[in-house]
Amino acid sequence: MAGIRLTPEEPEMPVGTPPRPQLPPFVAAAGGGGGGLEMASDDERSIAADSWSVRSEYGSTLDDDQRYADAAEVLAASASSANFPSAASDYCSDKDDQDPGDVEGSMLGLQSYWDASYLEDLANFQEHGHTGEIWFGADVMDTVAVWTKSLCNIIEGKIPSGQDNIKSEVNENLFSNYPVLDVGTGNGLLLQALAKQGFTDLTGTDYSKGAVELARNLAARDGFSSINFLVDDVLETKLDRKFKIITDKGTLDAIGLHPDGRAKRMVYWESVSNLVEPGGIVVITSCNHTKDELLHEVEDFTKRKFGKENVDEGARDASEIFRYIDHVRTYPTIMFGGIEGSQVCTVAFQRV
User: Which residue spans traverse the membrane (predicted)?
Assistant: First the structure.
């Protein structure tokens, strides 16, 4: 169900270890200026990544209270300013054209928050072997890995889309060499789960150097040193190859929490559309958007790319960029307001 954020799953900590500080509430970013609003750079309104305090005996721990206060101050100051710096993008936020599926901005949408967070995780790993957070939990991560493997039958045209193929058998010879990219890989554990399913050409990227260093250390420790980890921002990617499969577990959510999240999400889809091979698949796992909201976002991206007047019923096939193929149907569901939904969704799109 959109807007519900799951608590990350934590491995057991050593006896006597104080609990990891909980993430603070979302910091709402108010819109400013007039109708058109250009994206602000993170340099102008990010939190200082070196805001640290030593709070425990087991390693450096972020001063979350200070980070929250810094985030609130910086976001409020930037929102009240009409002189946002421009970004190299054809997309811009529009205060008067907000999508009802948009979520409020938060410090979790800023790179400096994740830089500091992963430096903390790296310090804890180096001192205690702590893996770090598993966003959406280990069960969801393993489900995504198994289900992604099942989608290879769709790539090969062996099973039509629209079926729940999570338990279907797949010939490993068909997919083992598929190039796979995990954007916003964090600690890289999803790629380890995919390696266990038989994938061998695996690349993980993250804009946080601390995340990439942590992922490399964890992969080496766990026997997956062949996984390739690179520092790269999907919104300004420097990658010069294409991939058969692209996975995203929470990255689009984080991008959407930036004060210019809506515009940045459009840049995201532009970048991903250039990184995935024709016929390849993109697997998005989200807790901030429902399946239908993701479908709407892809349709909105297509309209912005080709122009609304060209995306009509007669020209839809010619102007299609991504085609919905399936979603995970096995997550637990809840009832809210008479509507049934799940706290997390995983949706697959095929590059046309």
Answer: none
Beta strands 179-183 and 201-206 are parallel
Reduce the DSSP state of residue 203 to 3 states and report it. Answer: strand
Separation CA 179–CA 242 (nearest Å): 8
* Residue 216 near residue 191 (C-beta atoms within 8 A): no
Buried b (16+ CB within 10 A) or exposed e, 263-285: bbbbbbbbbbbebbbeebbbbbb
Contact call for residues 45 and 259 (beta carbons, < 8 A): yes
CA distance 299 to 295: 6
Burial class (CB in 10 A: 0-12, 13-18, 19+), 336: exposed
Q: DSSP for 145-202?
A: HHHHHHTHHHHTTSS-SSS--TT----HHHHTT-EEEEET-TT-HHHHHHHHTT--EE
**Lookup result for tokens 């080709």:** 306
- Write the DSSP assignment of 295-333 as a string of letters: HHHHHHHHHHHH-GGG-STTTHHHH-SEEEEEE---S-E
The residue that leads in pLDDT, 97 or 206, is 206
Choose the weakest-confidence range: 158-172, 214-228, 257-271, 321-335: 158-172
Q: What is the pTM of this model?
A: 0.73
Domain boundaries 138-351, CATH class = alpha beta
Q: Cα angle vertex 89, ends 86, 95, to 5°? A: 70
Structure tokens of 112?
A: 């400096």
Looking at the chain, list the stretches that DSSP marks H as alpha helix, in order from N- to C-terminal side: 42-45, 64-79, 111-128, 138-150, 152-155, 172-175, 189-196, 209-222, 251-256, 261-275, 291-306, 316-319
Residue 84 one-letter amino acid: F
